[in-house]
Amino acid sequence: MKRVFVSGGSGYIAMYCIKILLNKGYQVITSVRKQEKINLVKDSLSKNSINYDNLEFCILDLLEDDGWDDALKNCDFAIHMASPVIPGDVDYDMLVKPAFEGMKRCLNSAIKNDVKKFVLTSSFAAIYGNSKTEYDDNDWTDLSDKTHMPYVISKTKAEKGMWDIIENSKSEIDACAINPVLVLGPSMTGILSMSNRLTIKKLFKLPFIPNLSVSVVGVNDVADAHIMAMETTNSKGKRFLLSEKTINLVELCKILRNSGFNKVPSFKIPNLILKFIAFFTPSLKMIAKRIGTHEKLHTINANEILNWYPKSVDKEIVDSAKQLYSEGLLKN
């Protein structure tokens, strides 16, 4: 039985990856930060009728060396997913340091243990931070731009760091990076993911709809892509931009309204008015910078190498809202 290490096992996408791996007959070793997260993972798998007899746990810290080498012992594959997700202009060390150092610890332990394949959960954030509006797998965020938020810097530095280590290593380890756009869909643990918090929940609080588009993909398809990339040798040295579509918030609100969620906004605010309001409202400045733009994405590697063609994310959007409603986080 082949062994797979998955870091950050209680995380949003990680839970779906673990579900797929267990169903496919892999032995899975996953890390969590605290003991209580172990019961959360087990309970969540049980609720989804997933047998976890082949699941082992370890407690690891992205900023501590202890335990990493032992956790990856005898593993065939490693999927490094653990990385803090905190939006906004937060302290640099809260995001960049654990993201970069955690990646190094996991990758170096994988190399030391002769792991065959290392899959890094990167992000579209490591791609879009430049002056372009059309992107593919080969684009990179420009770190010389000092206006980037710490999350963007953390994902970019972690992925660049991985490629640097791979390039300078004498090891035969294969590596690839998964770069999803905004991931939507319900959480297996019931804990609201940051992506759903920043989109679905926030939409219900807006008095108007900005003329803004966002690229989205379903969580199930993102998890599938991780396992596909892990299993194929053709993914070596590749980045995989993942997106189902780029959708205007007007259309996103329409999807929710057609599914019975009547409290999403219906008034589309004119661009000039939003820009004027944003001049006096700091929280709207980032939105104002992007209004009227429509990005175009090309998921070439995912399509051609993985044969990855995602399902419509519309159902995931609605299911996210239903979960938020059932958890009492939305009122309709």
Helix/strand/pairing class, anyone?
alpha/beta
Uncertain runs: none
Q: What's the SSE pattern?
A: EHEHEHEHEEHEEHEHEEHHHEHH
Radius of gyration, whole Å? 20 Å
Number of strands: 12
Fourth-tier CATH superfamily name of the domain at 3-184 and 217-243 and 295-310? NAD(P)-binding Rossmann-like Domain
CATH class of the domain at 3-184 and 217-243 and 295-310: Alpha Beta
Structural summary, described in words:
Helix content is 41%, strand content 16%. It has 332 residues and is α/β, with parallel strands linked by helices. It has a domain at 3-184 and 217-243 and 295-310: NAD(P)-binding Rossmann-like Domain (Rossmann fold). The strands form three sheets. Strands 3-2-1-4-5-7-10 form a seven-stranded parallel beta sheet, with helices on both faces. It has a three-stranded mixed beta sheet with strand order 8-9-11. 43% of the residues are buried. The mean pLDDT is 90.
SSE arrangement:
Elements: E1 3-6, H1 12-23, E2 27-32, H2 36-47, E3 55-59, H3 68-71, E4 77-80, H4 92-112, E5 117-121, E6 134-135, H5 150-168, E7 174-180, E8 182-184, H6 194-203, E9 213-218, H7 219-231, E10 238-242, E11 245-248, H8 249-258, H9 271-280, H10 285-290, E12 296-297, H11 300-304, H12 314-326
Parallel strand pairs: 1-2, 1-4, 2-3, 4-5, 5-7, 6-12, 7-10, 8-9
Antiparallel strand pairs: 9-11
